[in-house]
Amino acid sequence: MLDEYPEQLIVCEHHWSDDLEIPWTDARGDFYGVSGTPHVRIDGKYLQVGATSCTSAADDYRALIEQRLAETGSVSPVSASGGLAVSAGEASLIATFVLEDDVDLGAVRAVLVLRENPVSYGGTDYHRVTRAGSTLPVTLLEAGDHATVAATFTLDPGWDADNLSAVAFLQHFGGDLEVYQGLRLQRVADVAAENNPSPATRLLSVHPQPMAMGAAGVGATIRMRLSAAAASGPLELALFDGSGRRVQTLLAAGAGALTGRSLLEVGWDGRDQDGRAAPAGVYFLRLSSREGVAGRTLVAVR
């Protein structure tokens, strides 16, 4: 079924037993009012309980998916962007939701889910297994309102960090459990490295956060702390989009160029390396020095 709906993110299924159990999936089970036999929610709205076979399950899911797509027309009043960065021992998820239409969403919350794909357990191969998750409050009242949510999870030694993926969705948390928007968080493998820089060399802050694209005087200021070794160069600060594409090199300093500098500020004007306006979304900063690589997110909204 995955090939039938390549652009749709509709079904979320959670396992909460044995070694696959995590507290967050128990909490989601309580939210849906289910336990025991796996339950599948279609866009948070339609419920399918168990199945006698994979084929029958696919038939049941397909019918409910088609019903849900017919209702929504595959259009949401909310747009979303985001990304996943995995570094030494941690996975960081970030998503930005923007209310595009003047509609009353009611009480909504953002859900961030970290998954592993694939996982073999007890002789069974699972296509995706939820490893961690977080539910965060969101307020979107008028068209143009935006909300950015983020969560960082410590990686368990039993997880395969190379096969982690993530999703985020916005869900109604009162009465109807409808999902308003969902997205796969693009993984940026090039942002974080296995080796961490020393505490003396790091990305301190990004301001403003989020950055308002298209506003008067648009721009973000990135502040860094450098050790003497890092400042002696070479050093690079690069910006990547959610797909891992390099948007712009914000700083490239050769050996000796920054000697004696301990604090440094660099700006980004919202444009790519060809001078074109970059779209709104989640971006990742990568600071590379002889001490290692540091990463940080930058969120741009309109």
The CATH homologous superfamily of the largest domain is termed Immunoglobulins
Question: What is the strand tally?
Answer: 21
Query: Biggest β-sheet, characterized?
Result: 5 strands, mixed
Round the mean pLDDT to the nearest integer and report it.
82
Q: What is the CA–CA distance across the termini?
A: 35 Å
In which range does the helix fraction lie? Answer: 10-25%
The whole-angstrom Rg is 21 Å
Topology pattern, helix = H, strand = E: EHEEHEEEEEEEEEEEEEHEEEEE
Number of helices: 3
- Overall, the morphology is globular
pLDDT < 50 runs, ≥5 residues: none
How many discrete domains? 2
* Strand residue content: 35-45%
Classification by helices and strands: mainly beta
Provide the spatial order of strands within the biggest beta sheet.
Answer: 15-21-20-17-18
User: Which CATH class of the largest domain is shown?
Assistant: Mainly Beta
